[in-house]
Amino acid sequence: MSEEPGQAGAGRPADPPDTTDDPDRPATYREVFAVREFRAVFGASALSSIGDYLGRVALAALIYHATGSALASAAGFAVTYLPWLTGAPVLVALAERYPYRRVMLGCDLARMAIVAVAAIPGVPLLLLPVLMYVSAMLTPPFDSSRSAMLPQILSGDRYVLGLSITGVLNQATQVGGYAAGGLISAVDPRLALLVDAATFGLSALLIRTWVRARPAEPRLRTDTSLLRDTAEGFTVVFGTPVLRSIAVVILAGAAFAILPEGLAASWSGELGTGARGQGWIMAAMPIGAAIGGVVIGRLVPPGPRRKLIRPLAALVPLSLVAALLSPPLPVVMVLTALTGFAMSVIIPANGLFVQALPNGYRARAFGVMQGGLQLVQGGAIVLAGAVADHVGVARTVGLWSLLGLLVMGLVSMLWPKSGTFDKAFAETRARNEAAAEAAERRSRESADADDAGAPSAAQDASERRVGPVQSRRRTGRVGAERP
Predict the structure, then answer these.
(1) Torsion-angle region of residue 410: left (phi > 0), alpha (psi -120 to 50) or beta?
(2) Where is this region: Disordered (predicted)?
(3) pLDDT (tens digit, 9 = 90+) per residue, 5-49?
(4) Which among 283, 284, 305 is positioned nearest to 294, based on CA atoms?
């Protein structure tokens, strides 16, 4: 389960030391991008993410061209979202047993091969959703391993700013991936699948060349079953008070922020602005999130940033309460952008999350959070859509946001005190040290057992002289003397 450092990066200058230990000074973009491994992970993540969106558009286009059915096309598109709600937690738990770099490489290479097969002309239409589903099943272990690797690459406030950069990247690749997928699919959807496969290959090349090999994270126990490992991911997130509080803030915020994007088509129809209005509403959220990432992640120092978690969490639903007044499109866009800005609460919250999370649970915990985000966002859209059919979109968004204010008020009341966080951080550091010591002890015991079981050179020579028959006789006598 360990991975020895290879030649990746050999002969190249080491990454600059982290100089952001000062708690009052925020990290800079230059300091983050000066880390070679982060640049590689950043580029690999961008390529893999763009590939995901390219594949979704190409699959939907292929199905629609073949069937002419909007329902069949939508169903094919939705297939790629299923893994987080099906077998992803188990795959993430399995991935955590191996070095994160190896998992990312394996996922990229496997996805490259699968999508390349899907791009072959003549592949049966019914097989395409199956192939893309299998490819999408490898996204959760890739994303979780990347999230778990980031604290190994960046430390201190560099890590927090790195999260902010990753968040902006996610928004940009979503827009760029869908746009590129549409343009290429207009020429030939299978060409889009070929480009999709190439993005995964390039991502693997970046990781292989520029990311240093590290051993798997040490664990206190290695004899647990895969199902138990999966369950422990949920237990550590929702069974640890500090992690549970952070998780609730992030998941609740996502549930109340998703409605403008999820109901954009019907909201623009209600406003009479058509597809143009839908596009503007959907674009407002990532614009606000990008601004929030720069302001909260880069300009606000670490200490004040931590204190902004509860105000930003309350701002998420508060910014959309004005929807009760049925505002025009420009106001809707401003409100939606403000919600995206408020969702930058994820930046300081994730910074606390990783400090309270034992190293051996990183991939599983991030997988739990990713799956939870998919679940609460999808559930919120379905529920709000059902209500909007009866009372209208604007009123639904406003009422849903009022409910969000009550929820965030309760979350704020139950938010742990600063001393509770400090105690949790100290316990996590102690747990990480214990896991590292246990792993080192197992390694020594394994090495001692190997040495004890290996025959000496003199014994080998003696056995060769006496021949195999006498050697077997001698072995039998020794064995007979043992109890």
Answers:
(1) alpha
(2) 1-26, 432-483
(3) 344 444 444 555 454 456 567 889 999 999 999 999 999 999 998
(4) 305
